[in-house]
């Protein structure tokens, strides 16, 4: 599984980096043996030697301090979310700020299922995310095979159309899209969200990028052995592409799970609400605003599956993003 | 095809047959995706321009009205406010996110303890849903007893801002959250770019006695140019289309202080069913994104020379 992946991460935006971009001053010395300080003039070293070690330590301390501040900035909102989800509704805001609840209100995690329609929301979201992910991976990789392995007139123009649409903000064409969906009768059905999310150009692009790193000779020899193009796709390309498929599947799943605008437009009936739409409605409800802790509990539950998926499949997220750099 | 002029008729027809076979074969692979793609993306984009010249509304009669929608649009006070607000969000957000994510990437592009954890932490906000994030930040920003204003109080700020409840501070609040959410993502892209710069360049520069800042200026920055260009395009388009973050955090308010173009399109199109009029607003958004992208292409090309 590992063989072709090694060449993907850098194939994104920055493959035409040439060493020629280096400053002229650096090039002559590049030929020197890389043995570091001992080769330098003594006159240069001596005055520096004394200060170097403490200053290096100071730099390192400063670096860590900067990173800790940045990490705190990044994570404190999540910490506060979890902590508030275990407070009494009236204790969410207190003076001074209480970072750890006085008494842990674990029952919030049971109450939320009664107070809000969590079960329905999660069920709908799960159905959508799974179906969309499967469809996106299948149709995306299938089309990518056509784009990368079969030569026919009009192919490159068509692919250009795909690429061009990635740069067009969805907000610009959501109105005509809504009109088409109404005409086809998909509005206020889960199908609307499936159609909306499952046929994106993104998956085609990501898979094509990957397929192009697989050596052509592999399919060539399979062809000689009498395998059809469909056979090559299914028996050779897909098994080789597991890392890319994992990236695409995880990104698609998370994207569908987190989508708010799509459901807002296409899923008006309450029984079709997704977790994001439900959570927002619950929070905006006049009753919800006095239930701050429960709203936080709901938020934690909505983030939890994504957090688990992210921690387990981190590598694939990073690779998928480094390969394409395209999303959202 | 004309390169093989000396082909016999049979070879030619065989070649045509092969081409036809390949066309069918290729389309058979692409079609399942293409049907959905055409329906939800290609056709809507093309239709957008046509609809923007009609008075299509809830009653369905789509008559040609020429540039009337556009004239109405620019005569509309709220649209002009939305236009200004979009830039007011985009410019600080692009600068802040770009600078912070680049700085973080340069800091993190080394081997040290805890780096892996930090990369994970930095990326986490980006994959969390905007709804959950917006709700949490809204509570953090609460004017009276919110943690942020209490922390500001500790630092001696007597009159802390009202954040999302104040017309002056709602946009800065949204910009802070937007930057917080996206910096990890762009940091990852910068890191991918940094890893393509050959390490020997830095070693050589160190031997020459070039300081860290000089190294950044003469090795890192030029080496990152393709990455930076790509990131700027993505970041710019992303900023100009900002929508869900604002919708959940402030709903465009208080008043119209955070109303942006995307939300205006949504209000006029989906809520008021003024399809023709809202499409005209969408065309404006389309051309803003296109123009900004083209400018960046031009700048990038000039820098390459």
Q: State the separation between the terminal residues of chain B, measured CA to CA.
A: 36 Å
Total strand segments of chain B? 0
CATH-assigned fold name of the domain at 110-324 in chain A: MetI-like fold
Q: What distance lies between the first and last C-alpha atoms of chain A, to the nearest angstrom?
A: 28 Å
Sum this structure up briefly:
The complex is a heterodimer of chains A (328) and B (305). With 328 residues, chain A is mainly α. Chain A is built from 13 helices and no strands.
List the helices and strands and how they pair.
The complex is a heterodimer of chains A (328) and B (305).
Chain A: H1 42-84, H2 108-115, H3 118-149, H4 155-166, H5 170-184, H6 190-198, H7 201-211, H8 216-224, H9 229-240, H10 242-258, H11 261-266, H12 275-284, H13 292-324
Helix pairs in contact in A: 2-13, 3-6, 3-7, 3-10, 3-12, 4-7, 7-10, 8-9, 10-13, 12-13
Chain B: H1 9-51, H2 68-75, H3 77-108, H4 115-127, H5 130-140, H6 147-154, H7 170-194, H8 199-207, H9 212-223, H10 225-240, H11 244-249, H12 261-271, H13 275-304
Helix pairs in contact in B: 2-13, 3-7, 3-10, 4-7, 7-10, 10-13, 12-13
Overview of this protein structure:
The complex is a heterodimer of chains A (328) and B (305). Chain A is mostly helical and 328 residues long. Chain A has a domain at 110-324: MetI-like (MetI-like fold, Orthogonal Bundle). Chain A has helices at residues 42-84, 108-115, 118-149, 155-166, 170-184, 190-198, 201-211, 216-224, 229-240, 242-258, 261-266, 275-284, 292-324. In chain A, α8 crosses α9 (229-240). Chain A is globular and about 75 Å long. Chain B is mainly alpha-helical. Chain B has two domains: 1-51, no CATH class; 68-304, MetI-like fold. Helix content of chain B is 73%, strand content 0%. The longest helix of chain B has 43 residues, at 9-51. Chain B is flat, with a radius of gyration of 26 Å. The two termini of chain B are 36 Å apart. At the A-B interface, α1, α3, α4, α5 and α6 of A face α1, α3, α4, α5 and α6 of B.
């Amino acid at each position: 599984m590992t063989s072709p992946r090694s060449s993907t991460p850098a194939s994104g935006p920055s493959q035409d980096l040439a060493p020629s971009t280096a400053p002229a001053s650096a090039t002559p010395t590049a030929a020197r043996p890389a043995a570091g300080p001992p080769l330098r003039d003594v006159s240069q070293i001596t005055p520096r030697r004394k200060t170097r070690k403490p200053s290096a330590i100071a730099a390192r301390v400063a670096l860590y301090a900067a990173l800790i501040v940045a990490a705190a900035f990044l994570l404190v909102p999540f910490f506060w979310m979890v902590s508030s989800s275990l407070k009494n509704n009236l204790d969410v805001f207190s003076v001074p700020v209480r970072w750890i609840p006085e008494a842990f209100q674990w029952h919030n995690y049971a109450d939320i299922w009664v107070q809000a329609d969590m079960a329905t929301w999660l069920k709908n979201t799960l159905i959508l995310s799974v179906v969309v992910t499967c469809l996106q991976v299948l149709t995306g990789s299938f089309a990518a095979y056509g784009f990368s392995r079969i030569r026919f007139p009009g192919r490159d123009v068509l692919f250009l159309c795909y690429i061009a649409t990635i740069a067009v903000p969805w907000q610009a064409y959501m109105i005509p899209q809504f009109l088409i969906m109404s005409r086809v009768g998909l509005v206020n059905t889960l199908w609307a969200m499936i159609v909306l999310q499952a046929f994106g150009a993104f998956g085609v692009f990501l898979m094509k990028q990957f397929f192009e790193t697989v050596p052509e000779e592999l399919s060539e020899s399979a062809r000689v052995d009498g395998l059809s193009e469909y056979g090559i796709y299914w028996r050779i390309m897909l098994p080789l592409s597991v890392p890319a498929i994992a990236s695409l599947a995880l990104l698609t799943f998370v994207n569908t799970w987190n989508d708010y605008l799509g459901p807002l437009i296409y899923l008006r009936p309450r029984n079709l609400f997704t977790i994001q739409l439900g959570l927002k409605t619950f929070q905006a409800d006049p009753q919800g605003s006095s239930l701050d802790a429960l709203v936080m509990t709901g938020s934690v539950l909505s983030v939890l599956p994504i957090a688990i998926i992210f921690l387990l499949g981190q590598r694939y997220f990073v690779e998928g993003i480094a390969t394409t750099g395209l999303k959202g | 095809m004309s390169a093989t002029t000396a082909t016999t008729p049979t070879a030619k027809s065989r070649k045509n047959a092969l081409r036809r076979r390949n066309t069918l074969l290729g389309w058979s692979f692409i079609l399942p995706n293409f049907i959905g793609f055409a329906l939800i993306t290609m056709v809507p984009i093309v239709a957008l321009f046509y609809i923007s010249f009609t008075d299509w509304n809830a009653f369905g009669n789509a008559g040609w009205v020429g540039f009337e929608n556009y004239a109405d649009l620019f005569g509309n006070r709220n649209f002009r406010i939305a236009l200004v607000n979009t830039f007011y969000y985009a410019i600080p957000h692009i600068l802040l996110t770009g600078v912070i994510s680049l700085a973080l990437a340069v800091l993190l592009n080394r081997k040290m303890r805890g780096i892996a954890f930090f990369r994970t932490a930095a990326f986490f906000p980006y994959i969390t849903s905007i709804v959950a994030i917006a709700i949490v930040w809204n509570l953090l920003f609460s004017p009276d007893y919110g943690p942020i204003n209490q922390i500001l109080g500790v630092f001696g700020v007597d009159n802390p801002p009202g954040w999302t409840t104040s017309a002056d501070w709602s946009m800065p609040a949204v910009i802070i959250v937007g930057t917080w959410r996206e910096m990890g993502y762009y940091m990852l892209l910068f890191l991918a770019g940094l890893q393509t710069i050959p390490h020997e360049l830095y070693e050589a520069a160190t031997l020459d006695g070039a300081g860290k800042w000089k190294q950044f200026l003469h090795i890192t920055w030029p080496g990152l140019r393709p990455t930076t260009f790509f990131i700027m395009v993505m970041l710019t388009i992303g900023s100009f289309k900002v929508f869900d973050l604002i919708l959940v955090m402030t709903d465009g308010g208080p008043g119209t202080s955070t109303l942006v173009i995307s939300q205006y399109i949504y209000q006029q199109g989906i809520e008021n069913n003024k399809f023709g009029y809202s499409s005209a607003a969408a065309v404006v958004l389309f051309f803003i994104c296109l123009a900004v992208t083209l400018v960046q292409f031009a700048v990038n090309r000039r820098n390459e020379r």
